[in-house]
Amino acid sequence: MPMVVNCAVYENGRRVADLTLDELKDRPRKPGSFVWVGLHEPDEETLSTVQQAFNLHPLAVEDAHRAHQRPKLEQYGDDIFLVLRTAHLGKDNKRELGETHVFAGRGYVVTVRHGASSSYALVRARCEAAPALLKHGEDYVLYSIIDFVIDNYMPLAECLEDAATQVEEQVLSQTAGRETVAQVYRLKKEIMEVRRSVVPVIDMAARLMRPDNPLVDPNIRPYFRDVQDHAIRVVENLDNVRDLLTAAVDAGFAYLSMTQNDVMRRLGAWAAILAVPTAIAGIYGMNFEVMPELRMTFGYPTVVATILVICVVLYRMFRKRGWL
Amino acid sequence: MPMVVNCAVYENGRRVADLTLDELKDRPRKPGSFVWVGLHEPDEETLSTVQQAFNLHPLAVEDAHRAHQRPKLEQYGDDIFLVLRTAHLGKDNKRELGETHVFAGRGYVVTVRHGASSSYALVRARCEAAPALLKHGEDYVLYSIIDFVIDNYMPLAECLEDAATQVEEQVLSQTAGRETVAQVYRLKKEIMEVRRSVVPVIDMAARLMRPDNPLVDPNIRPYFRDVQDHAIRVVENLDNVRDLLTAAVDAGFAYLSMTQNDVMRRLGAWAAILAVPTAIAGIYGMNFEVMPELRMTFGYPTVVATILVICVVLYRMFRKRGWL
Amino acid sequence: MPMVVNCAVYENGRRVADLTLDELKDRPRKPGSFVWVGLHEPDEETLSTVQQAFNLHPLAVEDAHRAHQRPKLEQYGDDIFLVLRTAHLGKDNKRELGETHVFAGRGYVVTVRHGASSSYALVRARCEAAPALLKHGEDYVLYSIIDFVIDNYMPLAECLEDAATQVEEQVLSQTAGRETVAQVYRLKKEIMEVRRSVVPVIDMAARLMRPDNPLVDPNIRPYFRDVQDHAIRVVENLDNVRDLLTAAVDAGFAYLSMTQNDVMRRLGAWAAILAVPTAIAGIYGMNFEVMPELRMTFGYPTVVATILVICVVLYRMFRKRGWL
Amino acid sequence: MPMVVNCAVYENGRRVADLTLDELKDRPRKPGSFVWVGLHEPDEETLSTVQQAFNLHPLAVEDAHRAHQRPKLEQYGDDIFLVLRTAHLGKDNKRELGETHVFAGRGYVVTVRHGASSSYALVRARCEAAPALLKHGEDYVLYSIIDFVIDNYMPLAECLEDAATQVEEQVLSQTAGRETVAQVYRLKKEIMEVRRSVVPVIDMAARLMRPDNPLVDPNIRPYFRDVQDHAIRVVENLDNVRDLLTAAVDAGFAYLSMTQNDVMRRLGAWAAILAVPTAIAGIYGMNFEVMPELRMTFGYPTVVATILVICVVLYRMFRKRGWL
Amino acid sequence: MPMVVNCAVYENGRRVADLTLDELKDRPRKPGSFVWVGLHEPDEETLSTVQQAFNLHPLAVEDAHRAHQRPKLEQYGDDIFLVLRTAHLGKDNKRELGETHVFAGRGYVVTVRHGASSSYALVRARCEAAPALLKHGEDYVLYSIIDFVIDNYMPLAECLEDAATQVEEQVLSQTAGRETVAQVYRLKKEIMEVRRSVVPVIDMAARLMRPDNPLVDPNIRPYFRDVQDHAIRVVENLDNVRDLLTAAVDAGFAYLSMTQNDVMRRLGAWAAILAVPTAIAGIYGMNFEVMPELRMTFGYPTVVATILVICVVLYRMFRKRGWL
Ligand SMILES: [Mg+2]
Ligand SMILES: [Mg+2]
Ligand SMILES: [Mg+2]
Ligand SMILES: [Mg+2]
Ligand SMILES: [Mg+2]
Ligand SMILES: [Mg+2]
Ligand SMILES: [Mg+2]
Ligand SMILES: [Mg+2]
Ligand SMILES: [Mg+2]
Ligand SMILES: [Mg+2]
Ligand SMILES: [Mg+2]
Ligand SMILES: [Mg+2]
Ligand SMILES: [Mg+2]
Ligand SMILES: [Mg+2]
Ligand SMILES: [Mg+2]
Ligand SMILES: [Mg+2]
Ligand SMILES: [Mg+2]
Ligand SMILES: [Mg+2]
Ligand SMILES: [Mg+2]
Ligand SMILES: [Mg+2]
Ligand SMILES: [Mg+2]
Ligand SMILES: [Mg+2]
Ligand SMILES: [Mg+2]
Ligand SMILES: [Mg+2]
Ligand SMILES: [Mg+2]
Ligand SMILES: [Mg+2]
Ligand SMILES: [Mg+2]
Ligand SMILES: [Mg+2]
Ligand SMILES: [Mg+2]
Ligand SMILES: [Mg+2]
Ligand SMILES: [Mg+2]
C-alpha cells in the first residue's frame, strides 16, 4: 500500500482535481473548496511536506510520527488534531486495534493510518456519492471518518459479546474448566482495552458539537451527536459484556465451590462408613487366647450383620443429611 | 395489529377528526390544534409518509427504523425525538422489555411501538377523558406517554422484588442450592437490564422540565417532575433489590461455607476416633509368637475397655471443642 | 386517634383560635397569621377539604393519599410539599419507620402522618412555649417539624450501633456463629433502609436554606443548616456502623477460616500419626508361614517400640511445624 | 485545670491586658484590638457569660455545650464557629482524639477544649513571640490554632504507619496469626476515625481562603492554603497506610491459604501412601485355609518388597508433582 | 555535586552571563531577560540568599527546606511554587523516586533537587540549543523542566509493565508460587506510589494552561497541554498495569484453587478406593472359629477377585465423574 493513498480537491461537494503532495503548497484556495489527503504510515519526509502545506503545529506532527498515542482531540487555534483508535475484525474474526490520526482545518482534512485499521476509501466513496452532504465541507468529512471508525466497533463488540456468551454457557452448563479461566482473563483484558479506545470519542464528539467550535457548522452538529450516541452504545455494550462476565464468573465459582465440596464430602462420608467394618473386624482379628465371641457358633454372622446394620444406618443418615 | 393504530386531530383538548396518513400532509394547521399518530412496527413506506408530513430529521427516522436503540432524548431545533424502553408483564408474570420511539413538535406527536410493549390506546382514552388537561396540547400528550411507560415499570420492579425475596428466604432457611445460584445470576442480569432502561428517563424528564425547553409550558413542568420522581422510585426499588440480593448471596455463602466445614470436620472427627480401635486392634492382631498380653485371661476385655475409654474421651473432647 | 389531630390559628407566635376543617375556607387571612393543621392517616374527603382550603396542587395531594413515597421536597410556586420518612423506637427498642407529608405555604402548614411515626403534639407544645421564635411564622414551624424528625433518628442510629457492637464483640471473642450471619444480614438491610430515609433530608435542608427560597426568612436559615448538620451526623453514624460491620465480618471470616483450617489440620495430623501403627501392625498381622521376625523373642516389643518412636517423632515434628 | 485558661486583650500584635470573664462585656473596643479567650470544658454559666460578651449565636453555643460534634465550619453573619477534632499522642504513644470548638469574629477569638486535646498555651506563646504576624489580628490567631491542630496529626499518622508496617512485616515473614487479624481490624477502624476527623479541615481551609470571607485578610490566605496542604498530606498518609494494610492483608491471606493447602495436601499424600501397606497387609492377614502365597518361602519378603516399591514410587510421584 | 549547580542570565533565548549567588541581588533586570538557577540539596544559607534575591514567599521556602512534600502547584501573586516527584531508573533498572522544587516568576526560575533525581543539565542544554523557543522566557523553561520530569516516568512505567507481564506469564503458565505473592504485593505498592507522584501533574498543567495565568503566554499553552497529555498517558499505563495485575491475580487464584481441589479430590478418591480392600480383608482376617468361607477352596481367589472388581468399578466411576 502506498504512503499517499489519496489526495484530492473538492468543490461544492464534488471532486474536482487530484494532486501530488508537492502540488499541495500551491493549491487553489477558494471558499467552499478543500483538500482531502489520505496517508498510510507515512515516512518523515512525506509528513513534513504535508505539515508545510497546511502549516500543522509541530506538537501535533510529533505525535503523528509515532503511533501508540492515546485517543484525544486537540485544538490549535482553528486547527484540529484527532487521535482515534480503530477497530478491525480480521480473518477468522481476529479482533485487532489500529490507530488513525486526523488533521483538519479550514480547507483541508488529512488522515494518517497506522496498523490494522480499515482503509478510508469506503468513506471517501460514500461522501463522493452524496454531494449534497459533502458540500458542507471539512466538518462533514470529519464526521464521516469518526462515524466509520465507531461503526467498525459494533461488530467487534458483538464478537466480544459472543465470546462472553460462550463463557456464560460453559458456566451455566457447569463445564467450565481451567481453559475458561484463561479465556475470561483474556476477554476482560481485551474489553478494557477496547473500552479505553472508544470512551474518549464520547467526549470528542461533545467538544466538536459545542456552539463555539469554529470548524463545525450548526447543521452538522446533530451528526456528531449521532456519532456520540453510537459511541455510547458501544461502551454500554462493552460494559454489559463485562458485567455479564463478572456475574458469570461469580456463578461459576459458586458452582465449582459447591461441586468440590460435594465431592470431598461424599468421599469423606464413604471413608467414614468404611472405617466402621475396618475397626470392628480389627477387633475380632486380634489374637487373644481368651475371646469368647470367637468360639460362638453364630459369632461371625452376628458380627457381619452388625457391621452391615451400622453401615446401612450410617448410609441412610448421611443420605438424609444430604452428605451422600 | 395494523401498522397505523390511530391518527386523529385534536383541538382544545377534544378529538375533532380522524385522518389517514395520506391526509396528514394537507391537515389543517391552527394554533391549539395537533395531530396524534400511533404506529406499530411500521414499514419504511409508512414511516417515510409520516416523516414528510411532519418534516422529521433523517437521523431520528434512521433510528426509528431499527429497534434496539438506547433510551435517549434528542432535540432537533423545536422537534423532539425520544427513545423509551418499555416494561411489560405478560402471561404468568413473564417479564418483557419493548421499545417505543416518540416524535413530538409543534402540532404533532407520533409514537412508534416495537416488540413487547403495551398499546397506548389506554393513554389516549385517559387523555380524551380529561379535555381540561389535554387542552394543554402536545406536551401533555408527551407527559401522558412517558408517565404510562414509567408506571408500567412499577409492577415489573415488584415482580423482581418478589423473586429476590424468594431467594432471600431460601438463603435464610438454608435451603439454597445449585438452582439458587443460576436464579441469582439471571435476576442480577435482568435487574441490570431494567435499570439501564429506566435510568435515562430521569435525565430526560430533567431536560424536558428545563425553562428553556420550547415545547413544554410552565404549568406542565410539575407533571414531568412527577414522572421523574416515579422513575427515581423505580430505580431505587431496583437498587434495593440488587443490594438485597448481594447481601443475601453473601449470607448464603457464609452459611454454605459454615455447613460444608461443619460436615467435613465431623466426618474427620469420626474418622479420627475410629482410627484408634483400628490401630490398637491391629497391634494385637500381629502374629508374634511371644506376646504376653495375648495369654492373659483378661487381656481381651482390658484392650476392648481401653479402646472404649479412649473413644469416649475423644468423643467428649471433640464435642466440647465443637468439632462434633 | 382522630384523623384531625389539631387545627389552630396562630398570630404573632400565639395560638388565637381553634378551627374545624370546614371553617378553614373562611379563616381570617391577616399578615403574620397562619393555620397549622395536624392530620393522621386522613381519608379522601378530609384531605380534599384541606386541599380546597389551601389550594394544594393535585399532584402533591395524589402523593399524600398513599404512603410509601420516597423522601423529597417539591416546590409548586410558593408552596412546598415535603415527604419525610420518620424514625420511631417502639417498645423493647423495636425500630420502626413511618412517613410524614408536609404541605406548607403562605398562611398554612399541614402535616399528614402515616404508620409508626411519633405525634407532633410535642413539637406544637414546644413551639407554643417559645412565642418569640414561633412569631417567625410558617418557616419556623417547618423547621421545628424537620428538626423533630431528625432528632428521632439519633436514638435509632445509636440502637443500630449497639447491635453492631454486639456483633463486633461476638466476632472478636470468636463466638460468632450461624445466628451472627443472619443478624449481620438483617442489620445491613436495616442500615441501608434508614440511610435511604435520612440522606435526602441533607439536600432538602440545603434547598430550604437557599437565598431564593420565598418561604424561609434569612434569620431562620441557620436553623435549617443546623437540621442539615444533624442529618449529616446521623448519616455519618450509619456509615460508621456499616463500615464497622463490614470490617468485623471480614475479621470474623478470617478467624473462622483460620479455626476451621486448624481443626482439619489437627485431625489430619492425628489420622496420619495413627496410620503408622495400623500399617506396621498390619504387616506383622500377615499369615505367611515364613516370617522370621515373628519367631524372635523380642520381636514384639521391638515393633511396638519402633511404632512408638515413629509416632513420637511425628508428633514432635508436627508440633514444631505448628500442625498440631 | 481551670475552666478559664486564659483571657487577654491584644493590640497591634502585643498582649496589653488580662481580663476576667466578667470584665469582657465592658472591654475597650478599638480597631486593631481583639480578645483571645481560652476555655477548658466550661460549665453552662461560664459559656453563657462569654456568649453574652461576644453575642454568640445560640445554635453555635448549643453545639459547644456538648462535645461529640462532627468537624465543621459555620458562618453566622461575620462570625465563625469551628468544630475541630484534635489528635493527641499520649504516654506510651497512646493515640487519642479530643475536640476543640472555636468562636471567632471581629474583636474576639474563643477556644473551647474538650477531652484529650493538647493545650493551646504553646500556640499563644508562639503568636506572642511573633508580634509582626500577630498584628494581622483574629485571622492569624485562627490560622495558628488550626495549624497547631493539623501539625499534631502528623506524629499520630506516623504512629499508625509504624503499626501498619509491623503488620506488613509479620505478613511478609509469614508469622501473621490470630492476633494480627484483630490488630488489622482495630487499625482499620482507627484510620477511618482519624480520617473522618481530618478530611473536613480541607474544606474548612478552602472556605476560609475564599475572597469573600469577611474575616480573613488577603495576606493571610496563603497561610490557610498551607494548612490545607498539610491536612491533605495527613489524609494521603492515612490513605497510604490503609491501602498498604489492605494489600498486606490480601498477601497474608494468599500465604495462609497456600500454607494451609500445602499442609492438608502433604498429610493427605502421606495418608494415601500409608493406605497401601495397610490394604496389602490386610489381604495377607486374611485367614483363608487355601492361600498359596502364604506357603511360599519368599512370600513374605516379596510382599514387603512390593509394598516398599509401591510406597517409594508413590513418594517420588507425589514429590515430582509437588504434592509432598 | 555542588549545591549551586548552575546560575546564568538569559536574554532573548541566549545565555549572556554566569553569576554567583551573591551577585543575584544586583543582577540587571531588563524585560526579556531572566535568571535560571539550579540548586542541589542546598543548605539553609544558600536557600536564604536565593529567597532574598527573588523575594520568595516564606511558606514556599519552608517547604523547600524539607523534602517529602506532596506534588503541588502554589501561586503567590505572580510567583509560582512547584513541587514535583521525579522518576529515576538507576543501575540494573532500579526504580527510584526523587523530588524537585521549582520557584518561578517574572525574571527567574529556580530548581531545587532532592534525592534520586536526574540532573537538569540536559534540559538546560536542550533549551540553549533552541534559542528561538527559549526566547519565550521563564514559561518555556518551566515547561521544559516539567516535560523532562514526565518523560522520565515513561521508562519507569514500562519497567513496571515488564514486571507485571512476568507475573502474568507465571500465572498463565501456572508456575506462580509464594514468591509471586510477595512480588505482586510490592508491585502494587510501587504502582500506587508512582501514580500518586504523577496524577497531580495533570492538574498542575491544567492550571498553568488557564488563560488567566499571568506567567504563561498563549503560545506556550499547547506545550503545557502536551505535558498534560503525556502525564495522562503515564497514568493510563500505570492503571493498565494495575488492572492487568489484578486480573492476573484473580486468574492465578482460580488456578490455584482448582489445582488444590484437584489434588485433594484425587488423594481422597484413592484413599476411598484403598479403604475397600482394607475393610473386606479385615473381615476375613477375623479369628472366628466358624467362618465357612475360610474353608472354601476358592474362597481366597473369590475375595481377591471381588476386591479387584470393586476397586476397578470405583476407579472407572471416579474417572468418569472427573474425580480422578
Ligand atoms: Mg499523547
Ligand atoms: Mg479508561
Ligand atoms: Mg443510539
Ligand atoms: Mg446503547
Ligand atoms: Mg459506561
Ligand atoms: Mg450498560
Ligand atoms: Mg446498550
Ligand atoms: Mg446504567
Ligand atoms: Mg415519588
Ligand atoms: Mg422508591
Ligand atoms: Mg440509584
Ligand atoms: Mg436506594
Ligand atoms: Mg426507595
Ligand atoms: Mg465474597
Ligand atoms: Mg453536627
Ligand atoms: Mg457523626
Ligand atoms: Mg453518605
Ligand atoms: Mg459518611
Ligand atoms: Mg462521624
Ligand atoms: Mg468519611
Ligand atoms: Mg504539603
Ligand atoms: Mg502528601
Ligand atoms: Mg484522600
Ligand atoms: Mg494517596
Ligand atoms: Mg502521602
Ligand atoms: Mg481476597
Ligand atoms: Mg491517586
Ligand atoms: Mg497519554
Ligand atoms: Mg496510554
Ligand atoms: Mg486512568
Ligand atoms: Mg491505559
UniProtKB/TrEMBL annotation, chains A, B, C, D, E:
Q: In its keyword annotation, does this UniProt entry include Transmembrane helix? A: yes
Q: Which InterPro entries match?
A: CorA_cytoplasmic_dom, CorA_TM1_TM2, Mg/Co-transport_prot_CorA, MgTranspt_CorA/ZnTranspt_ZntB
Membrane topology according to the record: Multi-pass membrane protein
Localization? Cell membrane; Membrane
Instruction: Look up the domain of life of the source.
Output: Bacteria
Where is it chiefly localized? membrane
Sorted UniProt keywords: Cell membrane, Ion transport, Magnesium, Membrane, Transmembrane, Transmembrane helix, Transport
Matches recorded under CDD domains: MtCorA-like (cd12830)
Entry coiled-coil feature ranges: none
Transmembrane annotation, as ranges: 267-286, 298-318
**What's the family?**
Belongs to the CorA metal ion transporter (MIT) (TC 1.A.35) family.
Q: What does this protein do?
A: Mediates influx of magnesium ions.
The entry's protein name is Magnesium transport protein CorA
Q: Which organism is it from?
A: Lacibacterium aquatile
Query: Highest lineage ranks of the organism?
Result: Bacteria, Pseudomonadati, Pseudomonadota, Alphaproteobacteria, Rhodospirillales
